[in-house]
Fold this protein.
Amino acid sequence: MQREHIHSQRHCEDYRGSIHTAPATCQAWAHNCICYHLLNTCYLPSRISSISKIFPVLMLYRLWEEGTVASLDDPLERYASTFTINNPLGMASAPEQQSLTDELEKVGPAPRPSSVTLRRMASQLSGLPRRLRSTSLLWRGSTQEALSLLKDDVLVADPGTRCHYSTLAFSLLAHVLAAHTAQGDYQRWILENVLEPLGMEDTGFDLTPLVRARLAAGFYGSGRPAPLYDLGWYRPSGQMYSTPADLAKLAMVLLGGGPPLLRPDAAKALLAPLLACSGAYFANETGTPWEFHAQGGYRVVRKDGDLDGYAATFSLVPPLRLSLVLLLAGPRPPGRDLVAQAYDVLLPAMERALREAEPSPAPPPSARPFAGYFTFANQTFYEVRPGPEGELRLRQFGPRVEALVPPAFRTLALRHLRGRVFQLHVAREFPCELPLGDAWLSLEAQHGQLVNFYPLDRHGLSPGFDVPGLNTYRVLRLQRKPVFKTQ
């Protein structure tokens, strides 16, 4: 890392209900954050550039919940009646083609309606250009002027078919939606509905003298100080400043802690990927407004941003309820991505910590109805028996298993949930894959799967079980332990 060109580097790791800190760093245990820093604290404001794009998306989902937005898949024209743009990459239906009389349109396939929907605008799938024609990020026009400029412009991708980064899409989405709110102003809506409810006191848009006095100084790679630009109409896409501590509060809410911003179904949709991107794009998948990166067997949900003198990353790993926020006053250092390096360490460490903290699998009231020997089509054999504390254990055995699976991986625990339903529990690290001839057995795929035992027979025994999540059915009870012919 070239520290001489970086004024400060701070990151917060958010996990459930505790904050762990490096020596001499901020400590705020109630904020569910792990904060580290080099020169400044996690309460020092910094510009967050494209992390700002999270907030128009939160606005979209809230307005959808409230009914102001009828559907996430509504066309933009429903909320901006003068919006129109050429879509040369789309194909019109046959009736539309027959109604076209312009000779120029007969040269090639006729265009169809834009299909620029709100959800696509929020997920880099709208096909809108990166910026308005002949404008920079400092453009100070109006939304009506923006819509006028788009009339003579073209989509760069057929909406919904290809990942294409568009700063224009997020700013246009924010300004159009704000016009349908009581506030009538995007920044005021975000302040009243997101920042104030979450206690994000050090987050905002306006670079007032007081904010400038506290803001981390940004630098170019050469070491030259970077100016503090005001983005004008493009403010919703990159104007905001914040602190690692404030962004950790937002991360907690998105991961299901703290005061809810969205209903559970909307929060789940917010964090879901929408489309796999081509290899030429900088992420594996795109979502609203996220980029998804595969790492360590997980989808890391990220929003990265870079603006003159500053770089920022906001990231989540929902299955672990883990987040990491990185703010740099300066450019990103060369070499491998800092956030990816951090997750190389964090993900295995979190898995180990979670497994060590997990209680022993809950035992059933009685092990007798479920204990015994079982087989799947006389190919795979299982023994279910109680463990030392009454919990059930499922052991795979037989010549095929013994030839392919190491002994340490043949036995899984069964956590009792309710009635005749149990949950497979892998009491060791994963992701992990075991080679089984031409197939691969994923321990992570088995962990957490439900085992549904059949109703008890007249002897009080379950005659078999299914594991629906692994597409395994009719694992049936044997009367006695099977005996295998020796090779």
Observations:
- Confidence is low (pLDDT under 50) at residues 1-8, 16-34, 92-107, 435-440.
- The radius of gyration is 28 Å.
- The longest strand covers residues 298-307.
